[in-house]
Amino acid sequence: MSTTQSSAEQSTRSARRPGDTIFAGLATGAAFTILVALAGVAIFLTLEGWPAITASPEEIGESNIIVYVWPLLFGTLLAAALAMLMAAPLAIGVALVISHYAPRRVAGIVGGLIDLLAAVPSVVYGLWGIQFLAPKVLPFYQTLQERLGFLPFFEGPATSGRTILTAAIVLAVMALPIITSISREVFLQTPTLHQEAALALGATRWEMIRMTVFPYGRSGVISAVLLGLGRALGETMAIAMVLSATGVVTFNLISTQNPSTIAANIALKFPEASGISVNVLIFSGLVLFVVTFLVNFLGRWIAGRGQVKG
Amino acid sequence: MKRTSFRRGVAPAVAAIAAISLTAACGAANEDNGDTGGDSGLSGTLNGGGASSQEAAQTAWRAGFQSANGSGVTVNYDPVGSGGGRESFISGGFAFAGSDSYLADQELTDAAANCGADPIEVPAYVSPIAVVFNIDGVDELNLSADVISQIFNGKIAKWNDQAIADLNEGVKLPDADINAVHRADDSGTTENFTHYLSVVAPDAWPHGEVETWPIKHGEGATGTSGVISAVTDNPNSIGYADASQAGDLGTVKVQVGTEFVAPSPEAAAKILEVSPRVEGRPAVDMAVDLDHKTQEAGVYPIVLTSYLLACQTYEDAATADLVKGYLTYVVSSEGQKTAAENAGSAPLSATLSDEATKIISAISAK
After folding, report:
1. Nearest residue on chain A to B223, judged by CA atoms?
2. pLDDT digits (tens, 9 = 90+) for B118-131
3. Exposed, middle or buried: residue A7 (CB in 10 Å: 0-12, 13-18, 19+)?
4. Structure confidence at residue B12 as a pLDDT band (50, 70, 90)
5. Residue of A261, A272, A274, A277 to mutate for B, most B C-beta atoms under 10 A
6. HSE-up of A165 (CA within 13 Å, CB side)?
7. In angstroms, rounded to a whole number, what is the distance separating the alpha carbons of residues B218 and A246?
8. Do B81 and A157 touch (CB under 8 A)?
9. Nearest Cα to B304, choosing from B231, B241, B210?
10. Three-class secondary structure assignment of chain B
């Protein structure tokens, strides 16, 4: 009895070495720093954005701040949503090929190439979008307008490739590597026993993936999509270059009349802004901050719910 | 293994030798310049700023002025925009400023209070704004202000519209939608362009003279380069931009009276001569109300005029001499030629250049 007690004491004493104290302190400090930084940003945005709420219509250029921010918020959400609509299925498909379908060597090469996409700076995507993609997709938009012009999305007139749909395609390409690489890791974690059991019960490969890989990876994939969404919401340079922004609210995806996004609008307007218009821009930044927060919380909630069920 | 270690050893050594010889060369060069700088009698730093339209020309002028006067002279030009330039000039932050529009009456009073006398305002940079287009197989188009307005506000949607065809007999116009490109950011180019449209075609362009594109029609592009690349990359587009940036794009000949005039520097410079001076300005003020409606032959009517602002007297002699020297160089035929070569601007006529030189020569210390 006494010996066990003393050995327990010894082990607690050995846990109190300086290395542990220092490491625990450093880790706590790191966590605390993040909180301070986040709080600092929030406080700055609120303080500097506040004058915009009470600013007179002449100073904002619109009747009030909500009328100013709403089209930008709409554009941000529309572009990001379209991008996710394209990127998420594609990324999950690529991740499955890498984790389950392709031979190991091919999978490695494909995975590496996809990861390379993440290393391309966004300004380069902007150049690619404006000089290469936009002229190339214009004939496609014109066909859409001819054949599906009765739908409000493809009303047109399609006279330029610099539309919100092109911007969404660029965003999708940019978000693709993030979603792919996380999904791939999650899919690879699926217990081999589950998969073999499914196959042993006579499941085809698709049924095996549907029964074992997807349920197991669900929350991870949702987190991956949300990270991609975060990138799409905050992307600035590529959008600022690609999009022909005129500040309208419309679901028409292929005309030259497009809503701008919050981040792109700040980047384009800030160099010439002075006085209260700076506060207006910062206020729009605050709105983006809050929206990004809400999206993240929503995602965590969905992911958490999935885990309990699984 | 041996080779790598050899390279590793040699590379820094070569770099070091290069660096040393470079520093030595620079040092020698500086000394030489310092000597010549003493000859012209000018030295010190001159700070100015303002209109970004002048940026390319200012770079050429600074280079020309500094090489003529040696390394003792430094001129800085901060392209903060016309409004910012005027503000800083009035508050005394800039010794001189560039501005795309002349001083408003209140600004004139404020500037006079800061300078101690009426401020000098001389035209320094005149540049035609070209209406550029990209249509396969068409190099030249004749358009009137009325038709240009209708194209940019969407009333005319197709290139083979009767209104365009009537002005361009014999030109094969495509049956395609017009893509009108405008500046998405606030811009002096937009201001001058819409000023022209609102004066000459007030019925077709009821949106007035504005810095920010006023209507929800057409494609928005950022900066002059953005407009040019949007038009270049996309057939059947039309846009407006500084003529020096038009490159290989087709340019519109604009109707003046009964003839159609292309945006050449000479045709653009002419408008300053036929336009009246702003009324009620001091003698040292050369501000001009551009007469866009002119019917004079050979005048191109869509022009950006940028001014230089300075005081008649400065606190210290060094600044006064620098401002005087720099501005004299800018409006001289040599300076105007440099700007025309480097920034594609239209040189001032001899008459205007002489008048400006005379005004500038009176700059002195208090």
Report:
1. A268
2. 999 999 999 899 99
3. exposed
4. very low
5. A272
6. 23
7. 8
8. no
9. B241
10. CHHHHHHHHHHHHHHHHHHHHHHHHHHHHHHHHHHHHHHHCCCEEEEEEECHHHHHHHHHHHHHHHHHHCCCEEEEEECCCHHHHHHHHHCCCCCEEEECCCCCHHHHHHHHHHHCCCCEEEEEEEEEEEEEEEECCECEEEECHHHHHHHHCCCCCECCCHHHHHHCCCCCCCCCECEEEEECCCCHHHHHHHHHHHHHCCCCCCCCCCCCCCCCCCEEECHHHHHHHHHHHCCCEEEEEEHHHCCCCEEEEEEECCEEECCCHHHHHHHHHHCCECCCCCCCECCECCCCCCCCCCCCCCEEEEEEEECCEECCHHHHHHHHHHHHHHHCHHHHHHHHHHHCCECCCHHHHHHHHHHHCCCEEC
The answer to whether A240 contacts B219, with C-beta atoms less than 8 Å apart, is no
A-B Cβ pairs (cutoff 8 Å, strict) = 60
* Domain residue extents for chain A: 1-54, 65-309
Rounded Cα distance between B144 and B205, Å, is 12
Torsion of Cα atoms, B257 then B258 then B259 then B264, to 10°: 10
Closest of A160, A173, A171, A108 to residue A134, by C-alpha: A160
Distance CA B174, CA B178 (A): 10
Mutation site for A-interface testing, chosen from B82, B91, B159, B179 by largest number of A Cβ within 10 Å: B179
pLDDT below 50 — which residues of chain A?
A: 1-4, 308-310
Q: Where in the sequence of chain B do the CATH 3.40.190.10 domains occur?
A: 12-127+271-289+304-365, 128-265
Q: Could you tell me if B46 and B314 are in contact, meaning their C-beta atoms sit under 8 angstroms apart? A: no
Task: With both helix axes pointing from N to C terminus, report the angle between B55-69 and B317-331 in degrees, rounded to the nearest 10.
Answer: 120
Give the H/E segment covering residue A182.
helix A164-188
Measured CA to CA, the distance from residue B273 to residue B128 in angstroms comes to 15
| Residue in chain A lying closest to B229 (CA) | A131
Q: Give the best-scoring range by mean pLDDT among A80-89, A216-225, B180-189, B272-281.
A: A80-89
Q: What is the ipTM of this complex?
A: 0.72
Q: Which CATH superfamily is domain B12-127+271-289+304-365 in?
A: Periplasmic binding protein-like II (3.40.190.10)
A199: phi then psi, degrees, rounded to nearest 5: -65, -40
How far, in Å, CA of A130 to CA of B221, rounded? 11
Cα A282 to Cα A45: distance, rounded to the nearest angstrom: 6
Q: Which tens digit of pLDDT belongs to each residue from A129-176?
A: 998 999 999 999 999 999 998 998 898 788 888 999 999 999 999 999
Asked if A244 lies within 8 A of B220 by C-beta distance, the reply is yes
CA distance A154 to chain B (A): 16
B303-B305-B308 Cα angle (round to 5): 170
Tell whether B79 is within 8 A of chain A (Cβ).
Answer: no
Candidates 1.10.3720.10, 2.70.50.50, 1.20.120.420, 3.30.1390.20; CATH matching A65-309: 1.10.3720.10
Domain covering B128-265 assigned CATH 3.40.190.10 in the classification: yes
DSSP 8-state assignment for residue A258: B
| Interchain CB distance below 8 Å, A138 and B234 | yes
Residue type, B68: A
